User: Fold these one by one.
Assistant:
Number 1:
Amino acid sequence: MNDRKQHVINTAHKLFVEKGFQATSIQDILDYSSISKGTFYNYFSSKNELLMAIFRVIQKKFEHERNELLIGKDPSDIEVFIKQMELQVKTNRASNLIPLYEEVLFLNDSELKKFISDFQLRMLRWVYERFHEIFGESMKPYLLDAAIMFTAIFHHNLKYERMANSLKSNPERVVRYSVNRLLALMKNVGETGEQLLPPELLDDWSPSCHKKDKTYQEKLTLEIMSLKKESMNRPDTVKYIELLDFILEELLQPNNKRNFVVESALSTLEEHFGKAKLQPLRSYLK
Amino acid sequence: MNDRKQHVINTAHKLFVEKGFQATSIQDILDYSSISKGTFYNYFSSKNELLMAIFRVIQKKFEHERNELLIGKDPSDIEVFIKQMELQVKTNRASNLIPLYEEVLFLNDSELKKFISDFQLRMLRWVYERFHEIFGESMKPYLLDAAIMFTAIFHHNLKYERMANSLKSNPERVVRYSVNRLLALMKNVGETGEQLLPPELLDDWSPSCHKKDKTYQEKLTLEIMSLKKESMNRPDTVKYIELLDFILEELLQPNNKRNFVVESALSTLEEHFGKAKLQPLRSYLK
DNA sequence: CATATATTATACCGTCAGTACAAAAAATGC
DNA sequence: GCATTTTTTGTACTGACGGTATAATATATG
């Protein structure tokens, strides 16, 4: 990405955080980043497009850092999940994302709306997958409910705890409290067997292109799972598991699929597993 | 309220629901309600003021219906609470409030923001008070946490259940599922004794004017409680309890305090309790 | 040095919320 | 029924907004 363009993104981000998205005019951005209107519309086709660019940058950085937390750790260890949630708070607070997200979600711009709600669903799916690793296959029927409720509790607790202790806010405490409640809820639904929403819904909600063949995801997930098992009890297990998860996540995302990154991950894995074992996975790249 | 003004409120509400708040121009409202711009700005000082007027109307009607559900019922019976939550869903869906609320909450108009967040806090407080009646004094330390988490779970579950079953959405099921989770959480925090936020915070958050004397609320609540006890085991108990709760709620709200309604409720109560017993309560009216 | 690309300045469009104000209409008081 | 006040109307206006158009200028590239 162009340095200049990146600079515009940065200043715009600052302005949006300070004044809000709608309250920041294009002229403001022009003034503060010292570019002309022509250049702006050469970079971004609209104000909304700029906003999405901002989101994408932060999002990519966050997801990368989030995956780094898994390196060398047991993915079923809930303490890792806690660390990841703490990172989320840190990222959100640092770049003041949440108010921006929510301002935009109800902005009557369908493109922007879809962008944000896709992101939220992606986040939900990620929580779901993590719960799958943490709580295991037996709890699967309750994991979508759990992901929804945990997200809800977590965000609300954060909001009100911040309202209460604005200066001395303690996000770590909120994370731990929320996770403890999650554990209680999991125990409870496991015992009562109550299910609100079946986890298969996540596939229906997954953005566009894979909707038709649900088996695509299933096959892919199974493929990844088997490779994960394969890599157990070998050296560098966690590193490879993380790579596999990364590939899964990347391939499941229809938009902005970054094939070249997957390609590189695949070749790393080939050194470990041998080319033959990776062949089926490679076929998903086409 | 003026008939004409009410008519503008109604048509504007319809338009906001159809097209969204920001996407509806003043001109639209003028055309559809057949008034001139001059008249509009005679009624409402701004578009935002109109929106607040819409909210107030619906809110008042909802709170009235919600209190009616308590008539003749035991306030500690959770089934009553469930019915009230179902009413909330019904009201919100009927007038499509939630999208409007959320659109507005991030609109960079501080007045509007305060209005909405005051309303949300009021709602939170109401849930807290109801939990107090349902779970009793012993659970008090956990009731603010519970109110926050229940609200969060409830709204999120509603959202995603609707996303899943758009046409055949079943709010009653969501209410019951959410309440069951609430019960599990209450049991859990009762056992572990974990508290995130002390319920006294609600007083700090209560809009403006009573912040200074926290004892005001305490005294008032005690006064009401003792009168409630007084009315037990008399004919029409529930009716009087409802009246007392209504007065409490009304007096705790600093803005738009409708003294004349409280006045009328008080005189009804005086017929029951005698003038002397009501004297202390009456002093809060000044 | 010549060509292509990126950037600038400026004028412009339609839309919006909100204001100003004089004329007309309606309600009110006597 | 008439005079005064209040409400309503129509219209023209303001300033800000997002976005477009374009010709001139600067910068990079081969």
Number 2:
Amino acid sequence: MKENTGISKYVMLGMLARMPQTGYTIKKWIENEYSHFWQESFGQIYPTLKKLVAEGLAVSSDNTQSGNGRGQIVYSITDTGRKELSDWLRKEPKIEKLRYEILLKISFGENIEPEVLLGHLDSFIRRNEKLVKDMNGYIELFKKLKEQDIDCSYSQLTALCGVYVYSAMRDWAIEAKKIISEKGVDDHETKGS
Amino acid sequence: MKENTGISKYVMLGMLARMPQTGYTIKKWIENEYSHFWQESFGQIYPTLKKLVAEGLAVSSDNTQSGNGRGQIVYSITDTGRKELSDWLRKEPKIEKLRYEILLKISFGENIEPEVLLGHLDSFIRRNEKLVKDMNGYIELFKKLKEQDIDCSYSQLTALCGVYVYSAMRDWAIEAKKIISEKGVDDHETKGS
DNA sequence: TCACGCATGTAAGATGTTACATGATTAA
DNA sequence: TTAATCATGTAACATCTTACATGCGTGA
């Protein structure tokens, strides 16, 4: 019973709850819509999907040679799978693992010229600006889909979270640049290497 | 040459660049000051520290029975270690791995009663409020230390980032609650289980 | 004496990524 | 015909967490 692939299992279940899908399309969804808070690789997806079937949480309709490519495998969620998913959804979420390499580098900033940090912050700002734009793009898309009676309100909420967080990151980086360039430079000079 | 323990190696180097330390104190620092953007476990720390010594990036002064406990091992960074650290600091940071379980659950929200989501968001808000408070506490502490000529400006910057991000998270969650309770409830009702 | 904090360490397992292999279809 | 995209999969490796074992010092 302790043989699951951690949370990936529930990610797959949640994706299949939307509609029957292939591992490939699940990957695409996660890349596009989820990248700002979750990521999965094929090396996780395909084995997990097989496990779901083995556990009776999904069924695979092997459409060999039907569609395109080498014969795609469409997975659908079962009732047991839906039950498993909603049980998990009820549990209080706790995993919040973030690893921001840039913050690590900033925090070790006294070991490097401030100009290097300013450079890192510049690309960080650009990256976050792009992400905010992307997220707003998704929100617009979801709004349009809603006009066609396709409801994506929950995905829209996560995109909104992206807007909030990426904007905050950008604002922080701008402020950090200001603080570093105002007083960080002479700091390093007086110390030398 | 591909035998490093990933980024943990540089985290250790950065910690030792501040002052000679034991693995235990490094863990404490990371838990307190870094938890919002990085985490390391003893299972990573101790082996990594040994590797640093093997690679000549640090030296261990084995103060057996000197301090308290079973005999602590104090590690210090070498010149080669400092060089390695600053080389790494120069490289553009890219790792940004975040896994927010709560966003996953929100995005699968249509499979559960909205009340469950509202509950998750409530504890999320409380958690972020506490974190903002903690971060502000650190900033105050760092300011006081600066009056005593102990410079923590770079750590202060990362704490500031915490303030920005956690505030954004809290604000988003408040907004999300509003959106869900305004229209999410009847949505689920019309669908049934 | 007993619990707790300090302190180090390892083994096992869980988790995750990367690189590779395969091969069909589609569009240029 | 060639490249890209669709599509599945595995093996090797890298990484990370968890649980455990050890044991001293300090204060209640």
